[in-house]
Specification:
The structure is a homodimer. By secondary structure, chain A is an alpha/beta fold. Chain A is built from 15 helices and 7 strands. The N terminus of chain A is likely disordered. Chains A and B meet through helix 2, helix 11, strand 3, strand 4 and helix 12 of A and helix 2, helix 11, strand 3, strand 4 and helix 12 of B.
C-alpha cells in the first residue's frame, strides 16, 4: 500500500512537472496539487543525479523549512530568484529573444521598404545574423526599438504568444518552450512545494517573458522581473492603452539585477540561480544577506546534450562569477555530470 | 450547533481581521487560516452596512468565483488593486508620508546647520507646515531628496519601521497604522479568501509602504506598487548595498498608475479601489478590460468619524473621477452611510 501510494505520487509529480504546460490556467488549485505531489514524491528532483548540487539544494531546503530549527526561515521570506537565459532555458546559438527580434524584422519588412538598403536591417532580412549584429549595441537597439515599441502592451503580448507557439529552435527543431531544462522545472516546483515564491530575474525583456512563463515555469507575470522599456498611458480609439516606447527603463543585468529585485520584490532573495557574469551581482546581493543563503551557478559543460561554454563565450560568458563562486563557496552545477536529463524531449 | 459554529467562525474572523497586525510574520499558514475564517464567517464584511457598495462587492465576488458560471474568472487572474492614501488609511490633514518627511527634517537638522536659514527647511523646522509647502513642487522635492535618498534601502526601511511604530496622528493621537479603515481590512481579507491577489498601487513611496504593509494589510512587499526613486548597486565597506538616489524613477499617480500596474503586475486588474482623481486612470484601465470588472471610489462623507471632502480638497481631490464614476456606473461608497465602523479603535 505504501509503495503504491509512492508510485502514484511519483506519477502525479511527473505529470505535474513534465506537463508544466497546464500549470498556469488552473492557478491556486494547481499550486495545491503541485505541493501535494512534491510532498508525497520519493525523489522530488528525479532528473538530478545524486551529486553535490542536488545534495546542497535538499539540505538547504530542509534547513530553512524545519520549524524550530536554527536556520528556519518563515515562508514569507522564502524568495528564490532565477535567471532565465542559460539557467531555465537554453541560450545558444543566440539568445532566443534575438531570434524573435529577427523574425519580427522579417514580418514587419513589407511596411518598411527602406530596410532593404539600411543596416542592420538589410543583413537581418538576408538572414545574416552576424552581419546584423556587427553594428554593435547601436544597431541592436535600433532593431529592438523597431520590433519592441510603438505597439500597445497587449498587441506585443499577442505577437509573442503567436511566435512562441510556432517558432522552432535552429539546431533541435524544437519549440523554444521545449528548450527548458527539465531539472530546473522540477527545482521550481520543489521550492514552491516548500513554501518558496519563485521569481525570474532576467536580462531578457519582461514583456517578452510574461506571456508564457506561467504555462512553462508556473511563474505568473507578477513574478517576472526583466529588462523593460518605458510605457505611456494614452487613449487609443476611445480606449485606454499602454504604449511601449523606445526608451529603456531598466537593463536588468549585472548591477541592474539587484535593482530590479528591490524594485519589484522589495526584499532580498534567500536563494538565487544564475549561469553567467550577468548574474554575479544578483548572487552577491543574495549571498550577503543575514541568515541561510543559497547560490548556484549552472555551468554549461555538456557539449553532447546541450552546449559547453564559459569564459570565452560571447553568449552567457561565465568568467568572473565562476572565480567568485570558487572563492565564496557558491554551488557550481556541472551540467554533464549532475543532470540525468537536460531536456524533457530526450526521454520521449 | 450550527449557530455555535457560526459564532466561533465570526470570532475567528474578527480575530484575524482586527489583529491583522500579526498577519505578516506567519505567511502562508496565516493566509490559510484567513481563508478558512472568511469562508466560515456568516458575514465576511461585518463593518459594512447593508448598502449598495457591500451588495455590489458580494455580488461581484460571487460571480467571478462561481465555477462554470458565465462570469467565472480563474484565480490567477483575480488581481485587485488598492490605492493607499484615503482608500486604505486616512490622508488628512496631510498625507502621512509628509508627516514622516517633516519628522525626518527635524531629526536630520543637527547634521545640516544651514537648514536654519534655508527654505523650505527653515519653515519645516519651526513646525510651519504651510510655509514649508509654500515653495510648491520644487521645495517639496528638495525635502524629499534630503530625507529619502543618500542612504541604503535597508537603512531607509529601518527608519520607516522606527517612525511608524511611534509617530502619532496630530488629530486622533493614534499610531498611523491605527488610522486604517477597518472595512477595507475586512475587504482585503475577504478578497484573498476568494482567491484574489491584493496589491497596493499608490502615489506614496514604495519604500515608505513596504516595511509595514504586510503586518497591517496582509500585503507583502512584492505586492506593493508605489512612487519610486532610482537605485544604485554599489559596494559599501566591502558589502553590496542598494543606495537610494534623488532621481525620480516612477510617479505612481494618475497616468502613472496603469504604468506601475503593468510594470509590476503585468496583467490588468479585474477590481480596483481608489478615492481621488489620482486613481482615475487606474479605474479606467481596470474597467476597460474584457470580462467582469469592479471599480469603487471611497467618497469621504463623514465629517464626524473621519473627514468630509471631495471636489475642493487640496489633499485627495475627488472631482473628475466622481463625474466619471457617475457616467460609467462605478460604485461610489458613501462612507458615512455605508460603513458601520471606520477605525477599529472606535469600537474599543
Amino acid at each position: 500500500m505504501r509503495m503504491r501510494m509512492t508510485l502514484a505520487a511519483a506519477t502525479t509529480l511527473a505529470a505535474v512537472a513534465l506537463l508544466g504546460w497546464q500549470m498556469g490556467s488552473a492557478g491556486t488549485a494547481t499550486l495545491a496539487q503541485e505541493k501535494a505531489a512534491y510532498k508525497a514524491a520519493a525523489d522530488p528532483l528525479p532528473s538530478w543525479n545524486d551529486g553535490p548540487s542536488k545534495r546542497a539544494i535538499l539540505s538547504f531546503v530542509q534547513d530553512v523549512t524545519t520549524e524550530g530549527g536554527r536556520k528556519f526561515v518563515p515562508p514569507a521570506e522564502r524568495i528564490a530568484t532565477f535567471d532565465n537565459d542559460g539557467t531555465l532555458w537554453a541560450e545558444q546559438p543566440m539568445y532566443f529573444q534575438l531570434a524573435f527580434m529577427f523574425d519580427r524584422v522579417k514580418a514587419l519588412a513589407p511596411q518598411h521598404p527602406e530596410w532593404k538598403d539600411k543596416e542592420p536591417f538589410a543583413a537581418a532580412l538576408k538572414g545574416d545574423v552576424k552581419g546584423a549584429l556587427a553594428g554593435g549595441e547601436k544597431g541592436l537597439l535600433e532593431m529592438m526599438a523597431a520590433t519592441h515599441s510603438g505597439m500597445t502592451t497587449e498587441e506585443f503580448s499577442q505577437t509573442v504568444t503567436d511566435w512562441i507557439a510556432t517558432a522552432k529552435h535552429p539546431k533541435t527543431g524544437r519549440l523554444y518552450t521545449e528548450m527548458v531544462y527539465q531539472p530546473m522545472i522540477e527545482l521550481l516546483g520543489y521550492l514552491r512545494a516548500n513554501g518558496f515564491k519563485t521569481f525570474i530575474v532576467s536580462g531578457g525583456g519582461i514583456e517578452f517573458m510574461r506571456p508564457w512563463t506561467e504555462k512553462v515555469y508556473g511563474i505568473p507575470p507578477e513574478q517576472v522581473v526583466g529588462s523593460s522599456g518605458k510605457l505611456r498611458f494614452e487613449m487609443r480609439e476611445g480606449q485606454p492603452a499602454l504604449v511601449k516606447l523606445p526608451q529603456v527603463d531598466l537593463i536588468d543585468d549585472k548591477e541592474g539585477k539587484p535593482v530590479g529585485i528591490q524594485t519589484h520584490i522589495g526584499r532580498r532573495p534567500i536563494a538565487a540561480f544564475g549561469n553567467s557574469d550577468g548574474d554575479q551581482q544578483m548572487l552577491e546581493w543574495t549571498a550577503s544577506g543575514h541568515g541561510p543563503r543559497f547560490c548556484l551557478i549552472v555551468h554549461h559543460t555538456d557539449a553532447a546534450r546541450e552546449w559547453a561554454y564559459d569564459r570565452q563565450s560571447s553568449v552567457g560568458r561565465l568568467d568572473k562569477a565562476l572565480d567568485e563562486a570558487a572563492s565564496k563557496g557558491w554551488a557550481v552545477l556541472d551540467m554533464k555530470k549532475e543532470w540525468k536529463t537536460v531536456f524533457a524531449f530526450e526521454t520521449k
